[in-house]
Amino acid sequence: MTQRTAPLPAAVDHLVIGAGFAGLGAAIKLAEAGEDDFLVIEKDGGIGGTWRANTYPGAACDVPSQLYSYSFAPNPDWSMSFSPQPEIEAYLRDVAEKSGTLDRFSFDTELTDARWDESDQRWHVTTSRGEVVAKALISGSGGLSVPKMPEIDGIETFQGEVFHSARWDHDVDLAGKRVAIIGTGASSIQIVPAIQPDVAQLDVYQRTAPYVLPRNDRRYTRLERLLFKHVPVVQKAYRTGIYWARELYVPGFVWNPALATPAKKLALANLAKGIQDPELRAKVTPTYQVGCKRILISNTYYPALAADNVDLVTDPIAKVTGNAIVTADGVERPIDVLIVATGFQTTEQPIAELIHGRDGASLSDVWAEHGMASYKGTATRGFPNLFQVVGANTGLGHTSMVFMIESQLAYIVDALTTMRQRGVAAVEPQQAVQDEWNDDIQRRMKRTVWSTGGCSSWYLDAHGKNTTLWPRATFTFRKLMSRFDAESYDLAPAKATSQHATTQTEGASA
Questions:
Q1: Lowest model confidence (mean pLDDT) among 38-47, 105-114, 456-465
Q2: What are the beta bridge partners of residue 312?
Q3: Which residues does residue 198 pair with via DSSP β-bridges, in sequence order?
Q4: Where would you tag: which of 170, 250, 300, 349 has the fewest CB atoms within 10 A of its CB?
């Protein structure tokens, strides 16, 4: 359902891209700070971001509900300890409606180009509904917004139904069909048990076996929900406890992988319980260190793989024909429906191609040689007044991204407030500071399980660098983002207008 949309103004102080957790959070925090002249543009028809787009069967969050929500907007009505997709989307819509900011959201408005104009120190933005000029550009488009299709010979010739898990075609009836699903990541392990009972045959194509922990999910009792609603300190205690329990994963990820041995044992016990057949169990037993790839959670994935109408295929796919998938061993498996669950474009964010900085180069151009690199995952040299939420090296493999999003939003709002108070027209990180930040991250990354764990994953870019994850504790990130460090930036005052002298003041330091 498309929500009512705001008109596109000619100019605003702050333009926010995306209406998921990041974009909605930005709107709320901007309004709270008195930065009222803003607009949020969203390419889809409503609030929700990835939780509006991903509607595949079984879609749910793998972070506990109490932590996967704004700290400033607790939800006492979660039904489960791990929220299903419809509840998360409904929660975001409810928060948006209560925030009083919905009149500044322009839906069905897609960013097509954004260029920094040094002469007027503004972002000139082109959208599918027109143009708008903004002092600051805040990107909340997220890293899980553009599906990644596999490069498989002949896939375009397939004559049956084919779609990505993030663009689920609900008009396709899978009952009694021969279905193939490519990928065994977070989406796939939810889809497989959801559709397995209905299909005639399900072929699951696995490249690398994931570690799958038990999903300790349960329905909240009526008493708990009453306490959450009427005694908020109880819900806050739940959230705090879950946060610190999740943070216990960090040492095993970033310091010593041996510390993650308990998680590995738990995953292997889950595997042994779910699959009895020795041959199948061997195929789905990971051969790398736990945490090297994203750890998944499910109680139903392994039993679904063991069902009589499911085959796990580990031979590489050679090609797709009009009605089948052919693997490297020459075996041809006929199918009616092909589901692609191969994730998203995370290390090469498509929006980076649309944002052009001072010299006309896009973010994509700047990152092409060495990979994504920004200061604090938020600001990038050469792109004044551009702030990214969930930018380079801000992702997580163990806990809630909402925690990171809130940390970045606090930093961004403080930056904008500082600019207004000091009469600053443009800010961008100093090159030396940005380089030092990223050198430190990559130095820390060398000892993490993501670099030493013996796997390849979507965490790594084409250069083999991990430009997606944060290699430290999340509370450390929050501390580092607690204030806008203006001393790390070049601050430029407003340039003289045509009626005044046109003195160049770019790069003045404060």
A1: 456-465
A2: 204
A3: none
A4: 170
Amino acid at 309: N
Beta bridge partners, 409, equal none
SS3 313: strand
Instruction: List residues bridging with 205 in a β-sheet.
Output: 182, 313
- What count of other Cβ atoms lies within 10 Å of the Cβ of residue 418? 18
Tokens of 280: 């199948």
CB 331 within 8 A of CB 315: yes
Q: Which residues of 99-112 are buried (b: 16+ CB within 10 A; e: fewer)?
A: bebbebbbbbbebe
What pLDDT, in 10s, does the model give residues 287-332? 999 999 999 999 999 999 999 999 999 999 999 999 999 999 999 9
| Whether the Cβ atoms of residue 290 and residue 212 lie closer than 8 Å to each other | no
| Residues whose CB is less than 8 angstroms from the CB of residue 231 and which lie 6 or more positions away in sequence, other chains included | none
The pTM score is 0.93
- 11-146+345-493 is classed CATH 3.40.1440.10: no
Question: Is the separation of the CB atoms in 66 and 239 below 8 Å?
Answer: yes
Amino acid at 149: M
Choose the CATH number for 155-210+248-340 among 3.40.50.2300, 3.40.50.300, 3.30.200.20, 3.50.50.60: 3.50.50.60
